[in-house]
Amino acid sequence: MPGYNLSFVNKLSRRCICPLCRLPMKDPVVITTCGHRFCDVCLQEFLSAGVFKCPEDDKPLDYSKLYPDNNLYTEITTSLIRCKHYKDGCKWVDQLGKLQSHLDICRYDAVSCPNSCSALLSRMCVHDHLEFTCPRRRVLCKFCGNEFSGEQFENHNGNCPYESVWCENKCGARLDRRHLSNHMKNECHKRTVLCQYCKREFVEETLQTHQYKCPRFPVQCPNQCETAKIPREEVEVHIQERCPSVSITCAFKEAGCKTKCQRFHLDSHMEENMKRHLSLVWELVRQQQQEIRQLKNALHASTQITNGSYIWKISDYKTKYLEAAYKGAKELTCQPFYTSRNGYKVSASVFLNGYGNSDGKYLSLYFKILPGEYDNILEWPFRLPVTFTLYDQAADPDKRKNIVERFVPDPTRKQFKKPHPDIETLGFGYPKFLTLETLKTRNFIKDDALYIGISVDNKTFIVP
Question: Which residues form the TRAF-type zinc fingers (predicted)?
């Protein structure tokens, strides 16, 4: 063992310090040939390497010249030291030689547990260890009265069935642990329970309050009908659609039937009043048809007011052309429109295979003036210039070449006089507007449709 690793009260002289371990020497020996001193253990460890020289001056060492240094031993062992547990609080100070006697009674020194539990603890902690922590101590459970070893008690403590505990739901109940499970499952008023109607979870003490508004709680029909109890959330649907006792109006109420009876009488009412209901419905249909006609006329009048320009799309061109070619001249007329608000009502017509001498060679296009809402306050004859445009539908806008024709009305012609509701005229226009060959070889027809623009110049129109 090397030198003393202890706290000396006074600093030792240099000769008391082992040159090898740098600690105060334990069992010092002296080499008489050179006078150097070492701890016996330190020197033996040095020499065990096979080097028989003095560690200090490197001179050969003779075992016969190696002796214990009793004077140095006495000097060291009579020096004052502090207990090796002084940092833990031990105040003992005395000669080094008395250290072991002190440690035999020092309350800070480590000792083995008297119960041989393998614990190593300070002498001052032995009593607490034997009473509270030793796994081999004997412990009496204060709840069930059984005795356990310390190790067994660690598992038993906190699990004793006879220990009095509080309810985990914090309901305020205190009872033996052995009764806790049954209490929390069947007795505790703060336990979680399932509503048998809506299947949602609630605290048991709130369940009754919940059932006063539970949507699935069965209740009696407000009309006291013979239907079994129904879920609260279905009461309204039951009353509106199924309850036989509810008073409802006849399905023909909108047609004029004023009857109101209970639902179970409704079928007999419908059978007994079939002819009457049919008569009411017919009268209602007649009124509605009249209203629809009035609304259509008003809508038509309001939606066909333009600024004088109208584009007419002629769809299904091929079919309509063949009908005109093989079934004789067939005039197609566009939707009438007003040239402006409070203006003239006009339209346009086209013969896809030509008209008269143009039949089979040209597309004929005409402008018509129709009887309108404001004719009595307009200026006659009609004098506003009219422009026809047949649109080229080429994909490249720069390559489009529309066909445009414009005319100024001749006031002497009958077509521009104030129109008469009972007299229909052909209109004024161009029997030879465009040859059919040009029409079909250019890009005027695309996706089986062509577009014709009708524009009335309103610049000289005098507002009534």
Answer: 101-154, 156-208, 209-261
Phi and psi at 353, nearest 5°, equal: -110, 15
To the nearest 10 degrees (0 to 180), the angle between helices 274-303 and 263-272 is 90
Asked if the structure places residue 386 within a domain, the reply is yes
Alpha carbon distance 136, 130 (integer Å): 8
Q: Among the three residues 263, 286, 303, which one is the final residue of a domain in this structure?
A: 303
**Cα(346)–Cα(339) distance, rounded to whole angstroms?**
7
291: Cβ contacts below 8 Å, ≥ 6 apart:
none
Alpha-carbon span 47 to 128, nearest angstrom:
48
| CA distance linking residue 86 with residue 93, whole number of Å | 9
Same domain, 26 and 76: yes
> Smallest Cα–Cα separation from 83: which of 102, 104, 57, 105?
102
**Residue 357 is encoded by which pair of tokens?**
């001498």
3-state percent helix, strand, coil for the chain, nearest multiple of 5: 35, 25, 45
Q: Which tokens hold the place of 304?
A: 């066909």
Half-sphere exposure (CA, 13 Å, Cβ side) for 337?
Answer: 22
- Assign residue 353 the CATH number of its domain: 2.60.210.10
Q: How many CA atoms lie within 13 A of 353 on its CB side?
A: 15
> Are the CB atoms for 109 and 103 separated by under 8 Å?
yes
Question: What is the model's pLDDT at position 109?
Answer: 85
Other beta carbons less than 10 A from residue 305's beta carbon: 14
> Which residues face 314 on adjacent strands?
450
* 377 and 327 within one domain: yes
What b/e sequence results for 96-134 when a residue is b if at least 16 CB atoms lie within 10 Å of its CB, and e otherwise?
A: beebeebbeebebbebebebebebebbbeebeebbeeeb
Structural domains counted in the chain: 3
**Strands 403-407, 247-249: pairing kind:** unpaired
Answer yes or no: is 400 within a domain. Answer: yes
What gap in Å lies between CA 356 and CA 395, rounded to an integer?
Answer: 34
Whether 401 contacts 392, CB under 8 Å = yes
Question: pLDDT tens across 162-197, in order?
Answer: 888 898 888 888 988 888 888 888 888 888 888 888
Distances (CA, A) of 110 to 107, 154, 384: 8, 25, 127
